[in-house]
Amino acid sequence: MSVDEEPPLPGAAEEPKAPGQRPALPIATALRRAFAKGYGAPELRADLMAGAVVGVVALPLSMALAIAVGTPPQHGLYTAVVAGASVALLGGCKFQVTGPTAAFVVVLAPIASKYGLGGLLTAGLIAGLILVALGVARLGNLIRFIPYPVTTGFTSGIAVVIATLQIKDVLGLSTGALPDRYIEKLAALWRARGSAHLSELVVALMTLGLLLAIPRVIKRIPAPLVAITAVAAVVALAERLVPGFHVATIGTRFHSTVNGVEVAGIPGVAPLPALPWGAGLPSLDMIYELLGPAFAIAMLGAIESLLSAVIADGMTNTKHDPNAELVGVGIGNVLAPIFGGIAATGALARTATNIRAGARSPLAAVAHAGFVLLSIVLLAPLVAFVPMASLAALLLVVAWNMSEARQFVHLVRVAPRSDVIVLFTCFVLTVFVDMVAAVTVGFMLAAVLFMRRMSSITESRLTLDSSVEIDVAPPPKGVIVYEINGPLFFGAAQNAMATLAAVRDDTFHVLVLDLGRVPVIDATGLAALENAIETMIRRKRQVIVSGPLPRPQSVFERARLEIRYPQLRIKETLEDALAAARELVEPSVVASPAR
After folding, report:
1. CB 374 within 8 A of CB 48
2. Which residue from 107, 247, 277, 554 could staple onto 282, CB 3.0 to 4.6 Å apart?
3. What are phi and psi of 346, to 5 degrees?
Protein backbone atom coordinates (compact mmCIF):
# COMPACT_ATOMS: atom_id res chain seq x y z
CA MET A 1 0.00 0.00 0.00
CA SER A 2 1.39 3.40 -0.97
CA VAL A 3 1.54 6.33 1.44
CA ASP A 4 -1.31 8.00 -0.42
CA GLU A 5 -3.71 5.08 -0.14
CA GLU A 6 -6.22 4.78 2.68
CA PRO A 7 -6.86 1.56 4.60
CA PRO A 8 -10.40 0.21 4.12
CA LEU A 9 -13.00 1.31 6.64
CA PRO A 10 -13.82 -1.29 9.29
CA GLY A 11 -16.83 -3.26 8.17
CA ALA A 12 -17.12 -1.41 4.86
CA ALA A 13 -16.92 -3.20 1.53
CA GLU A 14 -14.52 -1.89 -1.03
CA GLU A 15 -16.01 -0.17 -4.04
CA PRO A 16 -15.46 -2.18 -7.26
CA LYS A 17 -12.97 -0.72 -9.66
CA ALA A 18 -12.57 -1.36 -13.35
CA PRO A 19 -9.31 -3.03 -14.36
CA GLY A 20 -6.56 -0.43 -14.52
CA GLN A 21 -8.80 2.27 -13.12
CA ARG A 22 -7.12 4.56 -10.59
CA PRO A 23 -9.00 4.93 -7.27
CA ALA A 24 -11.02 8.13 -7.14
CA LEU A 25 -9.88 10.88 -4.82
CA PRO A 26 -11.64 10.29 -1.48
CA ILE A 27 -14.01 13.18 -0.77
CA ALA A 28 -15.67 13.56 2.66
CA THR A 29 -13.44 10.79 4.01
CA ALA A 30 -13.90 11.90 7.62
CA LEU A 31 -17.70 11.98 7.37
CA ARG A 32 -17.84 8.49 5.84
CA ARG A 33 -15.59 7.12 8.54
CA ALA A 34 -17.67 8.68 11.31
CA PHE A 35 -20.90 7.19 9.99
CA ALA A 36 -19.29 3.81 9.25
CA LYS A 37 -18.66 3.35 12.97
CA GLY A 38 -22.28 4.06 13.84
CA TYR A 39 -23.97 7.37 14.50
CA GLY A 40 -27.08 7.93 16.61
CA ALA A 41 -28.84 10.35 18.92
CA PRO A 42 -26.07 10.42 21.61
CA GLU A 43 -23.45 11.32 19.00
CA LEU A 44 -25.72 14.00 17.52
CA ARG A 45 -26.27 15.60 20.95
CA ALA A 46 -22.52 15.62 21.59
CA ASP A 47 -21.85 17.23 18.21
CA LEU A 48 -24.50 19.91 18.75
CA MET A 49 -23.06 20.82 22.16
CA ALA A 50 -19.51 20.91 20.84
CA GLY A 51 -20.64 23.01 17.88
CA ALA A 52 -22.29 25.53 20.20
CA VAL A 53 -19.13 25.84 22.29
CA VAL A 54 -16.92 26.34 19.23
CA GLY A 55 -19.47 28.77 17.78
CA VAL A 56 -19.19 30.93 20.88
CA VAL A 57 -15.42 31.03 20.42
CA ALA A 58 -15.63 31.63 16.66
CA LEU A 59 -18.14 34.50 16.86
CA PRO A 60 -15.87 37.23 18.27
CA LEU A 61 -12.75 35.81 16.65
CA SER A 62 -14.25 35.84 13.18
CA MET A 63 -15.25 39.48 13.54
CA ALA A 64 -11.91 40.50 15.02
CA LEU A 65 -9.94 38.79 12.27
CA ALA A 66 -12.04 40.34 9.51
CA ILE A 67 -11.48 43.78 11.04
CA ALA A 68 -7.74 43.09 11.31
CA VAL A 69 -7.68 42.22 7.60
CA GLY A 70 -9.38 45.53 6.78
CA THR A 71 -12.93 44.38 6.00
CA PRO A 72 -16.25 44.82 7.88
CA PRO A 73 -16.77 42.22 10.63
CA GLN A 74 -19.66 40.39 8.93
CA HIS A 75 -17.30 39.05 6.26
CA GLY A 76 -15.45 37.06 8.91
CA LEU A 77 -18.77 35.65 10.13
CA TYR A 78 -19.77 34.69 6.60
CA THR A 79 -16.47 32.82 6.30
CA ALA A 80 -17.16 30.81 9.45
CA VAL A 81 -20.65 29.93 8.20
CA VAL A 82 -19.94 28.94 4.59
CA ALA A 83 -16.40 27.56 4.78
CA GLY A 84 -16.99 26.05 8.22
CA ALA A 85 -19.91 23.93 6.98
CA SER A 86 -18.63 23.03 3.50
CA VAL A 87 -15.12 21.96 4.56
CA ALA A 88 -16.54 19.83 7.36
CA LEU A 89 -18.80 18.01 4.91
CA LEU A 90 -16.23 17.62 2.12
CA GLY A 91 -12.85 17.43 3.88
CA GLY A 92 -10.73 14.62 5.22
CA CYS A 93 -10.29 15.50 8.93
CA LYS A 94 -12.90 14.34 11.42
CA PHE A 95 -12.59 17.21 13.90
CA GLN A 96 -11.26 20.11 11.85
CA VAL A 97 -12.97 23.49 12.30
CA THR A 98 -12.41 25.89 9.41
CA GLY A 99 -12.73 29.66 9.35
CA PRO A 100 -10.73 32.88 9.24
CA THR A 101 -7.43 32.59 11.13
CA ALA A 102 -4.84 34.96 12.51
CA ALA A 103 -2.15 33.62 10.18
CA PHE A 104 -4.05 34.99 7.19
CA VAL A 105 -4.04 38.57 8.49
CA VAL A 106 -0.50 39.21 7.28
CA VAL A 107 -1.33 37.94 3.78
CA LEU A 108 -4.86 39.31 3.37
CA ALA A 109 -4.41 42.82 4.79
CA PRO A 110 -2.13 44.04 1.95
CA ILE A 111 -4.49 42.53 -0.65
CA ALA A 112 -7.51 44.29 0.87
CA SER A 113 -5.58 47.56 1.07
CA LYS A 114 -4.46 47.42 -2.58
CA TYR A 115 -7.38 45.75 -4.35
CA GLY A 116 -10.34 46.36 -2.05
CA LEU A 117 -12.95 43.86 -0.90
CA GLY A 118 -13.69 42.65 -4.43
CA GLY A 119 -10.05 41.88 -5.12
CA LEU A 120 -9.68 40.16 -1.77
CA LEU A 121 -12.68 37.88 -2.41
CA THR A 122 -11.50 37.11 -5.94
CA ALA A 123 -8.03 36.18 -4.69
CA GLY A 124 -9.63 33.85 -2.15
CA LEU A 125 -11.66 32.13 -4.87
CA ILE A 126 -8.57 31.63 -7.06
CA ALA A 127 -6.73 30.25 -4.01
CA GLY A 128 -9.56 27.77 -3.54
CA LEU A 129 -9.13 26.50 -7.08
CA ILE A 130 -5.38 26.10 -6.47
CA LEU A 131 -6.07 24.10 -3.29
CA VAL A 132 -8.47 21.80 -5.14
CA ALA A 133 -5.80 21.21 -7.78
CA LEU A 134 -3.23 20.38 -5.08
CA GLY A 135 -5.60 17.84 -3.54
CA VAL A 136 -6.52 16.24 -6.86
CA ALA A 137 -2.79 15.97 -7.65
CA ARG A 138 -2.41 14.14 -4.31
CA LEU A 139 0.19 16.56 -2.94
CA GLY A 140 -1.20 16.62 0.59
CA ASN A 141 1.61 14.51 2.04
CA LEU A 142 4.23 17.08 0.99
CA ILE A 143 3.48 18.98 4.20
CA ARG A 144 5.85 16.53 5.90
CA PHE A 145 8.79 18.09 4.07
CA ILE A 146 8.39 21.59 5.53
CA PRO A 147 11.06 21.86 8.27
CA TYR A 148 9.98 22.75 11.80
CA PRO A 149 12.25 25.85 12.01
CA VAL A 150 10.49 27.23 8.91
CA THR A 151 6.97 26.86 10.35
CA THR A 152 8.05 28.14 13.77
CA GLY A 153 9.86 31.11 12.26
CA PHE A 154 7.02 32.37 10.08
CA THR A 155 4.37 31.60 12.72
CA SER A 156 6.23 33.65 15.32
CA GLY A 157 6.75 36.43 12.79
CA ILE A 158 3.02 36.50 11.97
CA ALA A 159 2.26 36.76 15.70
CA VAL A 160 4.52 39.81 16.00
CA VAL A 161 2.82 41.54 13.06
CA ILE A 162 -0.68 40.76 14.40
CA ALA A 163 0.19 42.09 17.85
CA THR A 164 1.60 45.27 16.30
CA LEU A 165 -1.61 45.84 14.33
CA GLN A 166 -3.64 45.79 17.55
CA ILE A 167 -1.80 48.77 19.05
CA LYS A 168 -4.04 51.09 17.04
CA ASP A 169 -7.31 49.91 18.65
CA VAL A 170 -5.82 49.18 22.08
CA LEU A 171 -4.81 52.84 22.39
CA GLY A 172 -7.52 54.29 20.15
CA LEU A 173 -4.97 55.92 17.84
CA SER A 174 -6.07 58.01 14.86
CA THR A 175 -3.66 56.70 12.25
CA GLY A 176 -5.85 56.34 9.20
CA ALA A 177 -5.01 53.40 6.95
CA LEU A 178 -1.72 51.81 8.03
CA PRO A 179 0.95 51.33 5.33
CA ASP A 180 1.95 47.85 4.16
CA ARG A 181 5.56 47.66 5.34
CA TYR A 182 6.24 46.85 8.98
CA ILE A 183 8.72 49.67 9.61
CA GLU A 184 6.29 52.16 8.10
CA LYS A 185 3.51 50.78 10.31
CA LEU A 186 5.63 51.39 13.39
CA ALA A 187 6.42 54.90 12.22
CA ALA A 188 2.71 55.68 11.62
CA LEU A 189 1.79 54.37 15.08
CA TRP A 190 4.54 56.46 16.67
CA ARG A 191 3.44 59.61 14.86
CA ALA A 192 -0.14 59.09 16.10
CA ARG A 193 0.86 58.59 19.75
CA GLY A 194 -0.65 61.93 20.72
CA SER A 195 -4.15 60.72 19.80
CA ALA A 196 -4.18 57.89 22.36
CA HIS A 197 -7.22 57.59 24.64
CA LEU A 198 -6.97 56.31 28.20
CA SER A 199 -10.51 54.92 28.04
CA GLU A 200 -9.61 52.62 25.13
CA LEU A 201 -6.55 51.33 27.00
CA VAL A 202 -8.64 50.67 30.14
CA VAL A 203 -11.20 48.68 28.12
CA ALA A 204 -8.43 46.65 26.45
CA LEU A 205 -6.75 45.90 29.80
CA MET A 206 -10.07 44.88 31.37
CA THR A 207 -10.76 42.49 28.51
CA LEU A 208 -7.22 41.12 28.55
CA GLY A 209 -7.39 40.50 32.29
CA LEU A 210 -10.68 38.62 31.99
CA LEU A 211 -9.43 36.56 29.03
CA LEU A 212 -6.46 35.42 31.10
CA ALA A 213 -8.28 34.96 34.41
CA ILE A 214 -11.53 33.27 33.38
CA PRO A 215 -9.95 29.99 32.12
CA ARG A 216 -8.34 29.54 35.56
CA VAL A 217 -11.73 29.72 37.26
CA ILE A 218 -14.33 28.56 34.72
CA LYS A 219 -13.41 25.72 32.39
CA ARG A 220 -16.67 24.97 30.62
CA ILE A 221 -17.62 28.43 29.36
CA PRO A 222 -15.39 29.97 26.67
CA ALA A 223 -13.51 32.95 28.06
CA PRO A 224 -14.16 35.26 25.05
CA LEU A 225 -17.93 34.97 25.55
CA VAL A 226 -17.79 36.02 29.20
CA ALA A 227 -15.03 38.62 28.83
CA ILE A 228 -16.32 40.48 25.79
CA THR A 229 -19.97 40.35 26.90
CA ALA A 230 -19.11 41.65 30.36
CA VAL A 231 -16.85 44.44 29.10
CA ALA A 232 -19.39 45.47 26.44
CA ALA A 233 -22.08 45.76 29.14
CA VAL A 234 -19.78 47.83 31.37
CA VAL A 235 -18.87 50.14 28.47
CA ALA A 236 -22.52 50.65 27.50
CA LEU A 237 -23.38 51.50 31.11
CA ALA A 238 -20.38 53.83 31.51
CA GLU A 239 -21.28 55.76 28.36
CA ARG A 240 -24.69 56.48 29.89
CA LEU A 241 -23.48 57.35 33.40
CA VAL A 242 -20.05 58.95 32.90
CA PRO A 243 -20.07 62.27 30.99
CA GLY A 244 -17.48 62.38 28.22
CA PHE A 245 -16.73 58.65 28.39
CA HIS A 246 -16.63 57.11 24.93
CA VAL A 247 -14.92 54.18 23.23
CA ALA A 248 -15.10 52.95 19.65
CA THR A 249 -17.41 49.97 19.09
CA ILE A 250 -18.40 47.86 16.11
CA GLY A 251 -21.56 49.98 15.89
CA THR A 252 -19.66 53.27 15.70
CA ARG A 253 -16.97 51.96 13.35
CA PHE A 254 -19.08 49.98 10.86
CA HIS A 255 -22.48 50.53 9.26
CA SER A 256 -24.56 48.36 6.95
CA THR A 257 -27.62 48.91 4.80
CA VAL A 258 -30.52 46.44 5.11
CA ASN A 259 -33.57 46.97 2.89
CA GLY A 260 -32.55 50.56 2.31
CA VAL A 261 -32.13 51.28 6.03
CA GLU A 262 -28.68 51.98 7.52
CA VAL A 263 -27.97 49.97 10.66
CA ALA A 264 -25.03 50.14 13.04
CA GLY A 265 -22.71 47.14 13.15
CA ILE A 266 -23.40 44.03 11.09
CA PRO A 267 -26.49 43.31 8.97
CA GLY A 268 -28.89 40.89 10.64
CA VAL A 269 -29.47 38.78 7.54
CA ALA A 270 -28.01 35.52 6.26
CA PRO A 271 -25.24 35.80 3.65
CA LEU A 272 -26.51 35.80 0.08
CA PRO A 273 -24.65 34.65 -3.06
CA ALA A 274 -23.13 37.25 -5.35
CA LEU A 275 -20.18 37.53 -7.72
CA PRO A 276 -17.14 38.41 -5.58
CA TRP A 277 -15.66 40.70 -8.24
CA GLY A 278 -18.90 42.56 -8.93
CA ALA A 279 -20.92 42.75 -12.13
CA GLY A 280 -19.55 41.14 -15.26
CA LEU A 281 -16.35 39.10 -15.46
CA PRO A 282 -12.99 40.05 -13.96
CA SER A 283 -10.43 41.35 -16.42
CA LEU A 284 -7.43 39.24 -17.38
CA ASP A 285 -5.14 41.93 -15.97
CA MET A 286 -6.88 41.70 -12.60
CA ILE A 287 -6.63 37.90 -12.56
CA TYR A 288 -2.95 38.06 -13.49
CA GLU A 289 -2.21 40.54 -10.70
CA LEU A 290 -4.08 38.39 -8.16
CA LEU A 291 -2.35 35.10 -9.06
CA GLY A 292 0.63 35.81 -6.80
CA PRO A 293 -1.48 36.77 -3.75
CA ALA A 294 -3.83 33.85 -4.44
CA PHE A 295 -0.91 31.41 -4.51
CA ALA A 296 0.29 32.79 -1.16
CA ILE A 297 -3.21 32.30 0.31
CA ALA A 298 -3.34 28.74 -1.03
CA MET A 299 0.07 27.78 0.32
CA LEU A 300 -0.59 29.20 3.77
CA GLY A 301 -4.05 27.63 3.80
CA ALA A 302 -2.63 24.23 2.91
CA ILE A 303 0.15 24.45 5.50
CA GLU A 304 -2.07 25.60 8.34
CA SER A 305 -4.95 23.22 7.56
CA LEU A 306 -2.74 20.15 7.35
CA LEU A 307 -0.71 21.08 10.43
CA SER A 308 -3.94 21.55 12.36
CA ALA A 309 -5.19 18.18 11.09
CA VAL A 310 -1.97 16.48 12.19
CA ILE A 311 -2.30 17.94 15.68
CA ALA A 312 -5.97 16.88 15.79
CA ASP A 313 -4.88 13.35 14.89
CA GLY A 314 -2.44 13.38 17.79
CA MET A 315 -5.15 14.52 20.23
CA THR A 316 -7.68 11.88 19.12
CA ASN A 317 -5.56 8.99 17.82
CA THR A 318 -7.19 9.28 14.39
CA LYS A 319 -5.81 9.64 10.86
CA HIS A 320 -6.90 12.34 8.44
CA ASP A 321 -6.81 12.19 4.65
CA PRO A 322 -4.55 15.10 3.58
CA ASN A 323 -5.61 15.09 -0.06
CA ALA A 324 -9.33 15.08 0.72
CA GLU A 325 -8.70 17.84 3.26
CA LEU A 326 -7.02 20.01 0.63
CA VAL A 327 -9.94 19.46 -1.74
CA GLY A 328 -12.41 20.29 1.03
CA VAL A 329 -10.57 23.46 2.04
CA GLY A 330 -10.31 24.42 -1.61
CA ILE A 331 -14.04 24.02 -2.22
CA GLY A 332 -14.73 25.98 0.97
CA ASN A 333 -12.57 28.82 -0.31
CA VAL A 334 -14.37 28.77 -3.65
CA LEU A 335 -17.80 28.96 -1.99
CA ALA A 336 -16.98 31.46 0.78
CA PRO A 337 -16.20 34.46 -1.50
CA ILE A 338 -19.46 33.90 -3.38
CA PHE A 339 -21.25 34.56 -0.07
CA GLY A 340 -18.94 37.40 0.98
CA GLY A 341 -16.49 35.36 3.04
CA ILE A 342 -12.74 35.92 3.14
CA ALA A 343 -10.10 33.18 2.89
CA ALA A 344 -10.41 30.28 5.33
CA THR A 345 -8.23 27.50 6.65
CA GLY A 346 -8.17 24.99 9.47
CA ALA A 347 -8.17 26.81 12.81
CA LEU A 348 -6.03 25.00 15.38
CA ALA A 349 -7.48 26.64 18.50
CA ARG A 350 -11.08 26.09 17.39
CA THR A 351 -10.28 22.52 16.35
CA ALA A 352 -8.76 21.79 19.76
CA THR A 353 -11.80 23.36 21.46
CA ASN A 354 -14.04 21.18 19.30
CA ILE A 355 -12.22 18.05 20.43
CA ARG A 356 -12.21 19.02 24.11
CA ALA A 357 -15.94 19.85 23.93
CA GLY A 358 -16.70 16.25 22.98
CA ALA A 359 -17.19 16.34 19.19
CA ARG A 360 -17.90 12.95 17.63
CA SER A 361 -17.97 13.72 13.90
CA PRO A 362 -17.60 16.50 11.32
CA LEU A 363 -21.20 17.48 12.06
CA ALA A 364 -19.88 19.34 15.12
CA ALA A 365 -18.15 21.81 12.78
CA VAL A 366 -21.37 22.08 10.79
CA ALA A 367 -23.23 22.85 14.04
CA HIS A 368 -20.64 25.56 14.80
CA ALA A 369 -21.39 27.16 11.43
CA GLY A 370 -25.12 26.99 12.17
CA PHE A 371 -24.60 28.65 15.57
CA VAL A 372 -22.72 31.53 13.95
CA LEU A 373 -25.49 31.91 11.35
CA LEU A 374 -28.19 32.07 14.05
CA SER A 375 -26.12 34.65 15.92
CA ILE A 376 -25.95 36.83 12.78
CA VAL A 377 -29.71 36.71 12.31
CA LEU A 378 -30.77 37.02 15.95
CA LEU A 379 -28.00 38.92 17.74
CA ALA A 380 -26.84 41.48 15.17
CA PRO A 381 -28.12 44.51 17.16
CA LEU A 382 -26.17 43.38 20.24
CA VAL A 383 -22.95 42.91 18.28
CA ALA A 384 -22.88 46.68 17.68
CA PHE A 385 -22.02 47.23 21.38
CA VAL A 386 -18.78 45.19 21.26
CA PRO A 387 -15.79 47.56 21.84
CA MET A 388 -13.04 47.58 19.26
CA ALA A 389 -10.47 47.59 22.07
CA SER A 390 -11.94 44.32 23.38
CA LEU A 391 -11.50 42.64 20.01
CA ALA A 392 -7.94 43.98 19.85
CA ALA A 393 -7.23 42.46 23.28
CA LEU A 394 -8.63 39.14 22.07
CA LEU A 395 -6.27 39.20 19.10
CA LEU A 396 -3.35 39.99 21.41
CA VAL A 397 -4.08 36.74 23.25
CA VAL A 398 -4.36 34.91 19.92
CA ALA A 399 -1.03 36.38 18.78
CA TRP A 400 0.69 35.31 21.99
CA ASN A 401 -0.70 31.77 21.73
CA MET A 402 0.39 31.38 18.12
CA SER A 403 3.82 32.91 18.69
CA GLU A 404 5.13 29.65 20.20
CA ALA A 405 7.53 31.74 22.26
CA ARG A 406 8.68 28.81 24.38
CA GLN A 407 9.36 26.62 21.35
CA PHE A 408 11.17 29.53 19.69
CA VAL A 409 13.48 30.04 22.67
CA HIS A 410 13.96 26.27 23.04
CA LEU A 411 15.03 25.96 19.40
CA VAL A 412 17.49 28.81 19.77
CA ARG A 413 19.02 27.10 22.81
CA VAL A 414 19.28 23.48 21.64
CA ALA A 415 18.98 23.32 17.84
CA PRO A 416 22.02 23.14 15.53
CA ARG A 417 23.29 26.50 14.37
CA SER A 418 22.04 25.92 10.84
CA ASP A 419 18.47 25.41 12.10
CA VAL A 420 18.72 28.56 14.19
CA ILE A 421 19.78 30.47 11.06
CA VAL A 422 16.70 29.15 9.22
CA LEU A 423 14.48 30.06 12.19
CA PHE A 424 15.67 33.68 12.38
CA THR A 425 15.65 34.06 8.60
CA CYS A 426 11.98 33.05 8.39
CA PHE A 427 11.09 35.21 11.38
CA VAL A 428 12.80 38.35 10.08
CA LEU A 429 11.49 37.95 6.52
CA THR A 430 7.93 37.39 7.76
CA VAL A 431 8.00 40.56 9.85
CA PHE A 432 9.87 42.87 7.49
CA VAL A 433 9.06 41.48 4.01
CA ASP A 434 6.18 39.00 3.74
CA MET A 435 5.21 35.44 4.52
CA VAL A 436 5.75 34.15 0.97
CA ALA A 437 9.36 35.32 0.93
CA ALA A 438 9.88 33.86 4.41
CA VAL A 439 8.61 30.39 3.51
CA THR A 440 10.34 30.34 0.10
CA VAL A 441 13.75 31.48 1.36
CA GLY A 442 13.48 29.44 4.56
CA PHE A 443 12.57 26.26 2.70
CA MET A 444 15.39 26.72 0.16
CA LEU A 445 17.90 27.51 2.90
CA ALA A 446 16.80 24.47 4.91
CA ALA A 447 17.11 22.29 1.79
CA VAL A 448 20.65 23.53 1.09
CA LEU A 449 21.69 22.93 4.69
CA PHE A 450 20.13 19.47 4.59
CA MET A 451 22.11 18.61 1.47
CA ARG A 452 25.27 19.82 3.17
CA ARG A 453 24.56 17.53 6.14
CA MET A 454 23.83 14.57 3.88
CA SER A 455 27.05 15.09 1.95
CA SER A 456 28.99 14.99 5.21
CA ILE A 457 27.65 11.53 6.13
CA THR A 458 28.80 9.98 2.83
CA GLU A 459 32.18 8.44 3.65
CA SER A 460 34.80 6.74 1.51
CA ARG A 461 37.66 4.37 2.37
CA LEU A 462 40.60 3.35 0.20
CA THR A 463 42.22 -0.04 0.83
CA LEU A 464 45.58 -0.31 -0.91
CA ASP A 465 46.84 -3.62 0.45
CA SER A 466 46.28 -6.28 3.09
CA SER A 467 47.52 -4.02 5.90
CA VAL A 468 44.07 -2.41 6.11
CA GLU A 469 41.21 -4.55 7.37
CA ILE A 470 38.03 -4.80 5.35
CA ASP A 471 34.88 -6.86 5.82
CA VAL A 472 36.11 -9.76 3.61
CA ALA A 473 39.46 -11.28 2.64
CA PRO A 474 42.14 -8.62 1.99
CA PRO A 475 42.77 -7.70 -1.64
CA PRO A 476 45.80 -9.24 -3.37
CA LYS A 477 48.79 -7.18 -4.39
CA GLY A 478 48.00 -4.85 -7.28
CA VAL A 479 44.33 -4.51 -6.32
CA ILE A 480 42.84 -1.57 -4.44
CA VAL A 481 39.34 -1.43 -2.95
CA TYR A 482 37.53 1.89 -2.82
CA GLU A 483 34.48 1.70 -0.56
CA ILE A 484 31.74 4.37 -0.53
CA ASN A 485 29.35 4.40 2.42
CA GLY A 486 26.28 6.63 2.09
CA PRO A 487 24.08 8.21 -0.61
CA LEU A 488 25.95 9.15 -3.77
CA PHE A 489 24.08 12.28 -4.79
CA PHE A 490 25.11 15.67 -6.13
CA GLY A 491 26.03 17.04 -2.71
CA ALA A 492 28.53 14.26 -2.02
CA ALA A 493 29.54 12.80 -5.39
CA GLN A 494 32.57 14.96 -6.14
CA ASN A 495 34.04 14.57 -2.66
CA ALA A 496 33.46 10.81 -2.70
CA MET A 497 35.27 10.29 -6.00
CA ALA A 498 38.04 12.89 -5.52
CA THR A 499 40.39 10.54 -3.63
CA LEU A 500 40.86 8.29 -6.65
CA ALA A 501 42.53 11.09 -8.61
CA ALA A 502 45.38 11.17 -6.11
CA VAL A 503 46.23 7.45 -6.28
CA ARG A 504 49.50 6.75 -8.17
CA ASP A 505 49.35 4.41 -11.18
CA ASP A 506 52.24 2.25 -9.95
CA THR A 507 50.32 1.14 -6.86
CA PHE A 508 47.59 -0.92 -8.54
CA HIS A 509 46.39 -2.64 -11.67
CA VAL A 510 42.75 -3.30 -10.70
CA LEU A 511 40.30 -0.95 -8.99
CA VAL A 512 37.33 -2.44 -7.11
CA LEU A 513 34.59 0.12 -6.47
CA ASP A 514 32.60 -1.20 -3.51
CA LEU A 515 29.10 0.34 -3.65
CA GLY A 516 27.43 -2.18 -1.34
CA ARG A 517 26.61 0.54 1.19
CA VAL A 518 25.29 3.12 -1.27
CA PRO A 519 21.50 3.22 -0.74
CA VAL A 520 20.74 5.67 -3.56
CA ILE A 521 22.49 7.34 -6.47
CA ASP A 522 21.33 10.31 -8.54
CA ALA A 523 22.32 11.68 -11.95
CA THR A 524 25.24 13.68 -10.57
CA GLY A 525 26.52 10.69 -8.63
CA LEU A 526 26.23 8.51 -11.73
CA ALA A 527 28.11 11.12 -13.79
CA ALA A 528 30.91 11.27 -11.20
CA LEU A 529 31.08 7.47 -11.15
CA GLU A 530 31.26 7.26 -14.97
CA ASN A 531 33.97 9.91 -15.01
CA ALA A 532 36.03 7.86 -12.55
CA ILE A 533 35.53 4.72 -14.65
CA GLU A 534 36.57 6.50 -17.86
CA THR A 535 39.65 7.94 -16.13
CA MET A 536 40.77 4.53 -14.91
CA ILE A 537 40.21 2.95 -18.34
CA ARG A 538 42.29 5.67 -19.97
CA ARG A 539 45.00 4.92 -17.41
CA LYS A 540 44.94 1.28 -18.59
CA ARG A 541 43.49 0.03 -15.32
CA GLN A 542 40.83 -2.64 -14.89
CA VAL A 543 37.63 -1.58 -13.04
CA ILE A 544 35.20 -3.81 -11.17
CA VAL A 545 32.01 -2.48 -9.51
CA SER A 546 30.66 -4.57 -6.66
CA GLY A 547 27.62 -4.88 -4.48
CA PRO A 548 25.17 -2.26 -5.74
CA LEU A 549 21.89 -2.24 -3.82
CA PRO A 550 18.55 -2.46 -5.71
CA ARG A 551 18.19 1.27 -6.45
CA PRO A 552 21.76 1.82 -7.73
CA GLN A 553 21.47 -1.45 -9.65
CA SER A 554 18.38 -0.20 -11.53
CA VAL A 555 20.23 3.03 -12.34
CA PHE A 556 23.16 1.03 -13.72
CA GLU A 557 20.86 -1.10 -15.87
CA ARG A 558 19.22 1.96 -17.40
CA ALA A 559 22.65 3.54 -17.95
CA ARG A 560 23.85 0.32 -19.73
CA LEU A 561 27.29 0.69 -18.16
CA GLU A 562 28.60 -2.73 -19.21
CA ILE A 563 27.64 -2.05 -22.84
CA ARG A 564 29.15 1.43 -22.89
CA TYR A 565 32.34 0.26 -21.11
CA PRO A 566 33.20 -3.28 -22.30
CA GLN A 567 36.22 -3.37 -19.97
CA LEU A 568 33.95 -2.81 -16.92
CA ARG A 569 32.78 -5.71 -14.79
CA ILE A 570 29.86 -5.58 -12.34
CA LYS A 571 29.62 -8.17 -9.54
CA GLU A 572 26.86 -8.68 -7.02
CA THR A 573 29.12 -8.92 -3.95
CA LEU A 574 32.53 -7.72 -2.85
CA GLU A 575 33.71 -11.34 -2.53
CA ASP A 576 32.90 -11.98 -6.19
CA ALA A 577 34.63 -8.75 -7.18
CA LEU A 578 37.82 -9.66 -5.30
CA ALA A 579 37.82 -13.13 -6.84
CA ALA A 580 37.58 -11.59 -10.32
CA ALA A 581 40.34 -9.10 -9.43
CA ARG A 582 42.58 -11.94 -8.25
CA GLU A 583 42.18 -13.68 -11.61
CA LEU A 584 43.23 -10.46 -13.38
CA VAL A 585 46.40 -9.87 -11.33
CA GLU A 586 47.31 -13.59 -10.97
CA PRO A 587 46.65 -15.01 -14.44
CA SER A 588 48.56 -18.19 -13.59
CA VAL A 589 45.87 -19.12 -11.06
CA VAL A 590 43.15 -21.06 -12.81
CA ALA A 591 40.14 -22.83 -11.49
CA SER A 592 40.56 -26.49 -10.56
CA PRO A 593 38.99 -28.92 -13.05
CA ALA A 594 35.66 -30.33 -12.05
CA ARG A 595 35.66 -33.80 -10.60
Report:
1. no
2. 277
3. -65, 130
